[in-house]
Amino acid sequence: MAEIVIVYDSLRGNTKRIVEVMSELFTGAGHQVKALKPKEVEAADVEAADFLLVGGPTYHKKLINTMEQAMFKLEKADLKGKPGAAFASFGWSGESLGVVEDTMKNLYEMDLKVDGIKIKQTPVVAKVKKEVEPFVQNILAVL
Ligand SMILES: Cc1cc2nc3c(=O)[nH]c(=O)nc-3n(C[C@H](O)[C@H](O)[C@H](O)COP(=O)(O)O)c2cc1C
Fold first, then answer.
1. Pocket of ligand 1 (CB under 6 A)
2. Cβ(70)–Cβ(33) under 8 Å?
3. Whose CA is nearest to atom 2 of ligand 1?
4. Best residue for ligand 1 mutational test, from 59, 67, 127 (most atoms within 8 Å of Cβ)
5. Which of 90, 120, 125 most suits a substitution to test ligand 1, by most atoms within 8 Å of the C-beta?
6. Which domains does the chain have, with CATH numbers?
7. Secondary structure (3-state) at 8
8. How far apart are CA 55 and CA 33, in angstroms?
9. Which residue from 24, 27, 104, 111 has the least number of CB within 10 angstroms?
10. For the CA of 92, the nearest atom of ligand 1
C-alpha cells in the first residue's frame, strides 16, 4: 500500500472534483490518500509521500495564488528524486499545469514519472472520471 499525497487548491470546486475522483480511484486500488490544502500542508507530509501530486486551477493565465504560496512551502521539503506528477483544472488556456510541473521538475528536482494532466472545467463527475482514469492508471503502474 502506497501513500499518495495530493496538494491542491480550488476556488470554485472544479479542482476539488478532480481530487475527489482521483482519491476514490486510488483508495479503490488499495492505497492511502492524504489530500491537503496550501494552509494545511507541511514539509513532513510531502516528504512522507510515496507519490506526490500537486495541482491547481488557472486564473488570469496564472496558477491560483494560494498554490503559488504552497509552492514556496514545498520548496522547504526535501523532494529530490520523489516520484510525482502535476494536474490542473482549466477553462481555455490552462497555464497552471506547466507552472506546477516546471517547479516540481526544476526546483524540487522531483522524478516526474507520469506526464501531467489538465482537465477542462465541468460539473459532470463522469466526464472528470473518464479523463482522470488513464492518468491514475499510469500512476498505479509506477507505484
Ligand atoms: C475570473 C476567472 C479567470 C479565469 N482565467 C482563466 C485563464 O486565464 N485560463 C484558463 O484556462 N481558465 C481560466 N479560468 C477558468 C478556470 O481555470 C476554471 O473554471 C477552473 O476549473 C477553476 O478551477 P476551480 O473551480 O478549482 O477553482 C478563469 C475563471 C475565472 C472565473
1. 10-15, 57-61, 89-94, 121
2. no
3. 59
4. 59
5. 90
6. 3-142 (3.40.50.360)
7. strand
8. 15
9. 27
10. 11
Query: Which cell goes with 124?
Result: 459532470
Scored b (16 or more CB within 10 A) or e, 93-121 reads ebbbbebbbebbeeebebbbebebbbbeb
Per the listing, cell 499518495 goes with 4
Please tell me the pTM assigned to this model. Answer: 0.98
Grid cell, residue 102, equals 516546471
CA pair distance 23, 41, nearest whole angstrom: 17
* Tens digits of residue pLDDT in 106-133: 999 999 999 999 999 999 999 999 999 9
Closest CA to 75 of 50, 110, 36: 110
Cell of 29: 486500488
What would the pLDDT profile of 15-30 be if each residue is shown by its tens digit?
999 999 999 999 999 9
Residue 123: phi and psi, rounded to 5, are -80, -5
